[in-house]
Design a protein that fits this description.
It is a single chain. By secondary structure, this protein is α/β, with parallel strands linked by helices. The chain has a domain of 127 residues: Ribonuclease H-like superfamily/Ribonuclease H (Nucleotidyltransferase, domain 5, 2-Layer Sandwich).
Length: 227
């Protein structure tokens, strides 16, 4: 059985209770009261996305005794001693009600990019429909006394941002979706450019949203949720 320390976050119980209440609304187990969010997103960043060989299974010609004698040897996995192409970051959100995944790839990961993605999520629903965004305590997500753009925007746009407790990223349901993304889109790949890698990720999101009930997809997500 898993156990978690709560002493580092004095608001652990309050934050967890609020997140779980939002999940109950999204799952149809609780009827939202007047003014409560009707739409719940889980949001986080996936990455950094490097241009490097990713371990994992992939389609390849047979080797060993069953190898075609006329086929050239399979290329070895390339080395990546230098990575001059930089990294990218995937801002992703999981709509719990619709079961849909949304994602935008950005060159940087900061507060302005986070708010840019939140504005996109807000545009998916009429302004009079309250929405909630479940996020972790990564600094660009937070509202502080010195930096209040996130809180100001949320208050002005009928949005509640619910934070998971410290060291409780497992409570954010998008984490299991990231496991599936890594399994289906990245494992066993070696992309030559960020454009190529980004294209594969976007195609995966399109496929995933059209095949929410896919048996293999559900198996990977379920296994990730249990782990």
């Amino acid at each position: 059985m898993k156990t978690w320390k709560t002493s580092r976050d004095p608001d652990y119980a309050t934050k967890r209770a609020r997140v779980e209440h939002l999940y109950a609304i999204a799952d149809g187990e609780v009827i939202p009261e007047e003014g409560e969010p009707e739409v719940v997103f889980c949001i986080d960043e996936f990455g950094p996305l490097n241009l490097q060989p990713h371990p994992g299974q992939q389609w390849a010609e047979r080797g060993g005794r069953h190898k075609d004698p006329d086929r050239e040897p399979r290329p070895r996995r390339r080395a990546t001693y230098t990575r001059p192409h930089g990294v990218r970051h995937l801002f992703a959100a999981y709509d719990l009600g619709k079961g849909q995944l949304y994602g935008h790839i950005k060159m940087t990961k900061n507060r302005s990019k986070f708010l840019e993605f939140c504005r996109y999520l807000r545009s998916l629903h009429p302004m009079d429909v309250p929405i909630a965004i479940v996020a972790d305590n990564y600094s660009p997500h937070l509202t502080t006394k010195r930096c209040q753009p996130v809180g100001t925007w949320a208050e002005a746009n009928n949005v509640e941002i619910a934070y998971t407790p410290t060291n409780s990223s497992w409570l954010n349901r998008i984490e299991a979706q990231f496991t599936a993304l890594r399994y289906f889109a990245l494992d066993g790949t070696d992309h030559a450019s960020h454009k190529e890698q980004g294209s594969i990720i976007r195609w995966y999101i399109i496929w995933r949203n059209r095949h929410v009930a896919d048996e293999r997809l559900r198996e990977v997500v379920t296994r990730a949720n249990v782990a």
